[in-house]
Amino acid sequence: MSLGELRLRAYRQLEPTAWPREGLSPTNLLLAVLIVIAVLAAVLETEPTISGGRESMFGDFEIAVASIFLVEYVVRIWTVVENPRFAAYRFPRLRYAVTPMAVIDLAAILPAFVAVSGGSSLVLRFVRIFRMLRLAKLGRTSRAWGAIREAVYERRHEFGVVLALVGLTVLVSSSLLYWAEADAQPDKFGSIPRALWWSVVTLTTVGYGDVYPITTLGRFFAAVIAITGVMVIAIPTGIFAASFSEGLDRFRNRSKSGDSPDV
Question: What residue numbers bound the domain in which 246 lies?
Answer without folding.
Answer: 156-257
